[in-house]
Amino acid sequence: MNVASLEDTLHLGAAELGVALLSSQEAKLIAYLELLLKWNKVYNLTAVREPQAMVTQHLLDSLSVLPHLGEVATLVDVGAGAGLPGIPLAIARPQLKVVLADASHKKTSFMQQALLELALPNASVRCERVERLRLSAPADAVICRAFADLKEFARLARHLVAPGGRLLAMKGLYPHEELLQLPPEVVLRDVIPLRVPGLAAQRHLVVMEVR
Ligand SMILES: C[S@@+](CC[C@H](N)C(=O)[O-])C[C@H]1O[C@@H](n2cnc3c(N)ncnc32)[C@H](O)[C@@H]1O
User: Fold this and answer.
1) Of 47, 113, 152, 157, which residue is the least packed, with the fewest Cβ within 10 Å?
2) pLDDT value, residue 167
3) pTM higher than 0.95, yes or no?
4) What is the pLDDT, as a whole number, of residue 3?
5) Does the keyword Transferase belong to this entry (predicted)?
6) Would you list which residues are annotated within the binding site for S-adenosyl-L-methionine?
């Protein structure tokens, strides 16, 4: 693996996103990719296996939401899988408390190991179905990528935030159909187009507020 060029892609891409990273944070993000590559051989954690594509589709895609998180202090990543977007966000914003939740023991074992190896005290892992997950205090926001349609996301995760809290869904194409199906318990606040460096595909962040 050509680590130097992966670092370049990450460094230039983060700068393009307006995300400031220390070199130690960039090194942790690359170390996370290396862990993902290593565990993927046995655990089949992600279909994206080419290292440069992983920088773009996993690291930069996750980091692209950072400028839109606002003052959020606690964030739950539901259906986090191998830790996306939650682990890159926890690395890039050490003050942010991140809960990584997934129902799959295989996925949560990987995330637990990644948190240990990367020394990420601001993140924790819960092996639980989202609908059964209970937090000691409501989070400021919940985020998901490739988890469920907007209606189902709201149904399964709205109990994790207090009224006024946000549900953030990372989507590809503008989700016209899904937006027509939003339940009355949430209000649509924004649909933000995201530009991920190196990715031609459309990306959007849907911001909903829980009533
Ligand atoms: C397609 S993967 C996406 C993983 C990651 N967010 C990403 O973008 O790479 C969906 C994940 O959601 C998890 N999942 C699906 N339904 C769930 C539920 N009700 N509660 C918790 N996790 C769930 C699955 O185990 C799987 O890891």
Assistant:
1) 47
2) 98
3) yes
4) 54
5) yes
6) 79, 84, 102-104, 130-131, 145
Q: Provide the number of structural domains found in the chain.
A: 1
- CATH number where 124 lies: 3.40.50.150
Binding region: 79, 84, 102-104, 130-131, 145
Tell me the DSSP string of the chain: --HHHHHHHHHHHHHHHT----HHHHHHHHHHHHHHHHHHHHH---S--SHHHHIIIIIIHHHTTGGG-TT--EEEEET-TTTTTHHHHHHH-TTSEEEEEES-HHHHHHHHHHHHHHT-TTEEEEES-GGG---SS-EEEEEEESS--HHHHHHHHGGGEEEEEEEEEEESS--HHHHHT--TTEEEEEEEEE--TT--S-EEEEEEEE-
* Residue 137 lies in domain: 3-210
* Span from the CA of 102 to the centroid of ligand 1 (angstroms): 6
132: burial class by Cβ within 10 Å (0-12, 13-18, 19+)?
A: exposed
* Ligand 1 center from residue 23 Cα (angstroms): 30
Give nearest CA residue, ligand 1 atom 12: 79
Which pLDDT tens digit goes with each residue over 94-114? Answer: 999 999 999 999 999 999 999
* Mutation choice for ligand 1 from 147, 153, 156, 159, CB with most ligand atoms inside 8 A: 147
- Predicted confidence (pLDDT) at residue 69 exceeds the cutoff of 90: yes
